[in-house]
């Protein structure tokens, strides 16, 4: 129960009109965040007009180490509401080093459908994937990429051809230990 009260207090603090207080609160969240707080940060990221606050939230997302944040970030990335923040949220995924293998299709779709800059960030997430991905999924995604190559611009074709090589060779093990 104290966690819920603390989360509510933190969420209320994020609504402050004092940018310095909000930045301090974001600093506190770095130490102990949860799903409710993460959702509040996404809302603040979307609604704030203060560049320092946006930067602080994105820095926090790029340093996440809690694997429970993965579905929340992917959900925000695919939510039309956060379209303006999409490129930066995708960048946070490769920066934080969490495992996004379950969302390979989502990131491949971003490479295929989104602007080059967002596609490049999604490409980087895929490039950093490791661990087992079922052959059936790999083959499905290879077909999707090959089909999209037919109508791709030159710069997108370059990314897509690179993806074909990368997803065929995603390492089964991480090369370094945590």
Tell me the series of helices and strands, N- to C-terminal. HHHHHHHHHH
**Mean pLDDT across every amino acid position:** 88
Number of strands: 0
- Are there runs of 5+ residues with pLDDT below 50, and where? none
List keywords for this structure.
elongated; 70% helix; mainly alpha; 178 residues; 0% strand
Describe what you observe in this structure.
- This protein has helices at residues 2-14, 19-31, 35-47, 51-62, 69-78, 86-96, 104-113, 116-127, 135-149, 154-168.
- The longest helix is centred in the C-terminal third of the chain and has 15 residues, at 135-149.
- The chain has ten helices and no strands.
- Helix 3 packs antiparallel against helix 4 and helix 5 runs antiparallel to helix 6 (86-96).
- The protein is elongated, with a radius of gyration of 18 Å.
- The mean pLDDT is 88.
């Amino acid at each position: 129960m104290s966690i819920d009260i603390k989360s509510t207090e933190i969420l209320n603090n994020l609504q402050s009109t004092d940018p310095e207080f909000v930045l301090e609160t974001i600093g506190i969240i770095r130490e102990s965040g949860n799903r409710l707080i993460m959702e509040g940060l996404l809302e603040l990221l979307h609604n704030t007009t203060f560049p320092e606050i946006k930067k602080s939230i994105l820095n926090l997302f790029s340093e996440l180490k809690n694997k429970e944040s993965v579905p929340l970030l992917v959900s925000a990335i695919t939510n039309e509401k956060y379209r303006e923040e999409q490129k930066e949220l995708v960048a946070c995924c490769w920066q934080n080093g969490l495992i996004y293998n379950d969302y390979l299709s989502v990131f491949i779709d971003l490479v295929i459908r989104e602007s080059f800059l967002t596609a490049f960030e999604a490409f980087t997430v895929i490039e950093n994937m490791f661990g087992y991905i079922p052959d059936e999924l790999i083959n499905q995604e290879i077909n999707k990429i090959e089909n999209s190559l037919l109508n791709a611009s030159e710069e997108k074709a370059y990314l897509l051809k690179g993806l074909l090589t990368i997803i065929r060779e995603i390492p089964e093990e991480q090369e370094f230990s945590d």
